[in-house]
Amino acid sequence: MPTVIPADLTVGAFSSEPPWLVDPDRMEWRVAAPARRRATQATVPGLLRRRALPPGGRVLTVAGRLARALGGWYLVDRRAARRQDRPELSRAGLSKRLRHAFADLGPTYIKLGQILSSGEGLFPSELVQEFRLLRDRVPPETFDTVRRVVEADLGSTVEEVFATFDRQPLAAASIAQVHAATLHSGEAVVVKVQRPSVADTVRRDLAAMSWIAPHLIGRIPVSALANPPALVELFAETIVEELDFRLEADNMLDVAAVLAATDQRSVVVPRPHPQLVTRRVLVMERLSGFSFEDVAGMKSAGIDTTEVVRALMISFLEGAIIHGVFHGDLHGGNLLVQSDGRVALLDYGITGRLDQARRHAFLRMLMGGTINDPRMQMAAVRDLGALPADTDIDAVIRDLGIDQPVKDPTQMSPDELLAEIRDVIKKLLDYGARLPKVLMLYVKDLLFIDGALATLAPDLDLFEEITRVAMYFTQRYGERIASEVGVDPRERELDLGSVRAQLGVSEDVNSMTYRELQERRALIRRRMHEHHQRRR
Looking at 312, 327, 353, which one is the last position of a domain? Predict the structure, then answer.
């Protein structure tokens, strides 16, 4: 008997067994999404405006809790680390105290901690590991509270809408919690319910954060947090959209449409319900699969884990540089691997969106990498907003030594490596470097994929895979890339020099597995640790 192909697969990458069909043009909650998105982002400057006086008593609560955390670190952890000459103890102590402070301060700070926890490589490892504990340690709302929100937003009782509704949530996060349920028509669904007071709490907390942040400059010894006001701005731009689930459902349809347009059927998006979507309630198709960390389970089921991570990487890059829309919060908790090897991509509260100019800048940045054109890359980074518009690109290239031969960090002494890192950071800050929201989301996602390679495809040859990806984009989008950035990849030879520079290897290296890259990183960490031990 022939398989019936769901009609809505022409408009989105969804599952093959639909609980209902998606028709984006007939979903009333979607009609005002663009205007609603613009209005939401327009509120950010007001939330972050500079104030002469602290905005309410919340500032005192936040400042007091952070002061206790920093004071305890300064008096106990910092001194112990100095006595033992082990700076990692200082970072670990500070991270733990900040995690406890964030948990005590409630949903906004828990959400900030969760975002930081998925930034491995952007933030110190001690901070990332500690803040990961905030992902699944958020107490859920009571079922009575959930019932009130659902019934107020849907205008009907829980029993009128759902045949079953699990009282215990599948998961509870800072902004919302999700419950398994069944509709009266028999479809298995997931119901995402916003915490009732979180919107007001977030807005008060953002005002407090923006007032406190300038006073923290230079007082938190974590390099990634050297500019707290910029971090608060990034966080505000991200979290305000998460407070309206209609925008999240719209994100789901946009990402699904991109996947369908690129024919990436190895990644699927849960269908949002045609009617049951409001500001605080989102009903969607229930999908299942292996946890992204369950590598053994996937392999025992015959799933090719290399293909899993490859599909994720290609779909992510296509969304960003070809269509300007990508999932902005990739981490293990947002991914399930189905028994047929397809990846179910969940949670669309954070999505990266690029207008045409910034998408072209992204394309130039990656194109500059494939042809080893550092000037094209740095100019694209400037155009993305990471450097001031009047930055002298040639001066940046000279000052950072981008045009110089690659230095292998495994051949450098710890003192040389530390000096090199400090010098680069200082020069970037002197040039006014910052991390715009969309670039931060992009880098954070790349770092997650980097970690996924370590667990799902450790023996993948990085040079061979980069060549494969470059050839894919050249063959499929060569003409479009040429028209948009003025460089035809079909006429330019792939040059892996910039890849070698990023990996810190010499020109004669043409092959390296991810396992070997991990060994290099472990060697550098070991040498740095031994260096600190010798200085004791």
Answer: 353
Rounded mean pLDDT, 138-144: 91
For residue 472, the tally of other CB atoms under 10 A from its CB is: 13
Number of domains in the chain: 2
Backbone angles phi, psi at 427, to 5 degrees: -65, -40
Question: How far apart are the C-alpha atoms of 296 and 350, rounded to whole Å?
Answer: 29
Are 335 and 346 within 8 A, CB to CB? yes
Report the phi/psi class of residue 128: left, alpha or beta, with left for phi > 0 and alpha for psi in -120 to 50: alpha
Q: Which domain holds residue 272?
A: 7-31+244-353
In the three-class reduction of DSSP (H, G, I as helix; E, B as strand; rest coil), residue 466 is classed as helix
pTM for the predicted model, two decimal places? 0.87
pLDDT tens readout for residues 282-298: 999 999 999 998 999 99
Instruction: Give Dmax over CA atoms of the chain in angstroms.
Output: 75
Residue 382 neighbours by CB under 8 Å, 6+ apart: 388, 389, 391, 393
Of 320, 353, 386, the residue at which a domain comes to its end is 353
Residues whose CB is less than 8 angstroms from the CB of residue 444 and which lie 6 or more positions away in sequence, other chains included: 118, 119, 122, 328, 329, 330
Tokens 């937003």 sit on residue: 153
Sign of CA dihedral 142, 145, 150, 156: positive
382 & 522 share domain: yes
**E strands within 329-438?**
335-337, 343-345, 351-353
Instruction: For residues 77 and 100, give the distance between their C-alpha atoms in angstroms, rounded to a whole number.
Output: 15
Active site residues: 329
The candidate with the shortest Cα–Cα distance to 282, out of 23, 30, 25, is 30
Please provide the average confidence, as pLDDT, over all residues in the chain.
86
Residues 6 or more apart whose Cβ sits within 8 Å of residue 288: 336, 338, 344
Angstrom distance (rounded) from CA 26 to CA 23? 6
Same domain, 253 and 398: no
427-448 residue pLDDT tens: 776 778 877 888 888 888 888 8
Q: Is the pLDDT assigned to residue 410 strictly greater than 60? A: no
Q: Both 469 and 510 in a single domain?
A: yes
The gap from C-alpha 158 to its chain's centroid, in whole angstroms, comes to 34
Identify the residue with better confidence: 175 or 521. Answer: 175
